[in-house]
Amino acid sequence: MGVNSLIFLALALLFSLNSEASHCSTQGVPLVRNIGELPQDNFGRPGLSHITVAGSLLHGMKEVEVWLQTFAPGSHTPIHMHSCEEIFVVLKGSGTLYLASNSHTKYPGEPQKFPIFTNSTFHIPVNDAHQIWNTNENENLQVLVVISRPPVKVFIYNDWFMPHTAAKLKFPYYWDEQCFETPQKDEL
Ligand SMILES: *[C@@H]1O[C@H](CO)[C@@H](O)[C@H](O)[C@H]1NC(C)=O
Question: Are strands 121-124 and 112-117 parallel, antiparallel or unpaired?
Answer without folding.
Answer: unpaired
